[in-house]
Amino acid sequence: MTQLFNLMIEVMLPLALLVAAGAVWPLIFRDTPVEAMRTQLNRLVLYVFYPCILFAVVANTPITGNLLSVPLLVGIGTLTSGALLYGLLYRTPFGRRLNDPTRAVLMLGGMFGNTFNIGAPVVMFFFGRDAVRYAVFNDMLMTMPFIWSLGVWIATRLGSHEKPVSYPSLGRILASLPPLWAFALSLILQALDLAYKPLIAAAHMIGQATIPVTLFVLGMTIPWRNLTPRPEILAAAGVKLLFAPLVVAGVARLLFPPLGEAQYAAMLEATTPAMMTTLIMADRFKLDGASAALLIGWTTILFWFSLPLTLALGLIR
Fold first, then answer.
1. E strand or H helix at 211, and its extent?
2. Can you give the pLDDT at residue 312?
3. How far, in Å, CA of 273 to CA of 300, rounded?
4. What's the whole-model pTM score?
5. Pick from 62, 43, 278: which is nearest to 178 by CA?
6. What is the number of alpha carbons within 13 Å of residue 313 lying toward its C-beta?
7. What is the CATH number of domain 2-312?
8. d(CA 114, CA 159)
9. Contacts with 212 (C-beta within 8 Å, 6 or more apart), sequence order
10. Phi, psi (degrees; rounded to nearest 5) at 34
């Protein structure tokens, strides 16, 4: 109970306050251009803050088998959740009343979690500041490659069905993402033992803005006045918040006994709510943006209850 109370105060409270700040900002400053502000802050994170924190962490982190088990386990949970959601939304009467853009965006939101911006503070609470490496390597080796390959396939083949539409190739998409360039550069420097400590410290200082700014934008993104608890939204949220951690916990116990810090970190990463990229994918590929925002909102709210529940059940410690 003491650990749970400390988690609420040290992690969940600041996360909630940052999200709340984004929610009330347009209400206090009514001249705020919300859409433009959200777009520019997202660009600032993508092009400046996030690449810096990636560089600082990866350039200072040796790659080990234990570390790589995190993206492996979370990836298994992601694919299993996707398979369950596909069956539920496309192969049962439950999903037949929904259109394809809605079903596809619910699959994406139910598969991919906010494993850095929310996952990193949680794993750092349990395992210390250096545990941010688990969130970083999971993002770079699992989440980003999967969402811009399998995620794009789901969006275009199961969702939008736009024809004829010319989308950029996967290689072109990945090459345009600054975090991947920062990741590759830091890997090279780390492998050649050329990492310059003062430069790493400087990058870390800049990158510390990543999580606060992203959570502030999340607060501006959630449709607070229209949080209708639709059945399909809650079903996808249940898969993301409860089913995925159960799968990761089971597979971890099967493949990596006895469990270590990295495997517990993977379970924590699997508990995270839907990532904001779901909304970006919805806008980019003409999916159901309203449902994407609802799913992000509900999973973020319910995460405050599902994480303590998984802790109480002993799935994570």
1. helix 210-221
2. 79
3. 5
4. 0.91
5. 43
6. 12
7. 1.20.1530
8. 22
9. 18
10. -55, -50
In the numeric block, the tokens 């502000």 are attached to: 37
DSSP class of 10: I
Q: How far is CA 207 from CA 50, 194, 204, 211, in A?
A: 6, 20, 5, 9
Write out pLDDT tens, residues 210-234. 999 999 999 999 999 888 889 999 9
Q: How many residues are present in the chain?
A: 317
Please state, in angstroms and rounded to a whole number, the distance separating the CA atoms of residues 261 and 175: 33
Residue 113's beta-bridge partner residues? Answer: 274
Domain coordinates in residue numbering, the chain:
2-312
| Long-range CB contacts for residues 32-40, cutoff 8 Å, separation at least 24 | 34/220, 37/220, 38/217, 38/220, 38/221
Going by C-alpha positions, the residue among 114, 90, 84 that lies closest to residue 104 is 90
Q: Residues 78, 142: contact at Cβ < 8 Å?
A: yes
Q: How far apart are alpha carbons 81 and 142 in whole angstroms?
A: 14
Q: Report the C-alpha gap between 19 and 213 in whole angstroms.
A: 9
Residue 42 CB coordination number (10 Å): 18
Q: What are 167's two structure tokens?
A: 């989308």
Do residues 11 and 122 make contact, with C-beta atoms less than 8 angstroms apart?
A: yes
For the stretch 26-69, pLDDT in tens is 999 999 999 999 999 999 999 999 999 999 999 999 999 999 99
How many other CB atoms are there within 10 angstroms of residue 254's CB atom? 8
Place of tokens 């909630």: 16
Exposed (0-12), middle (13-18) or buried (19+): which is 9, by Cβ within 10 Å?
A: exposed
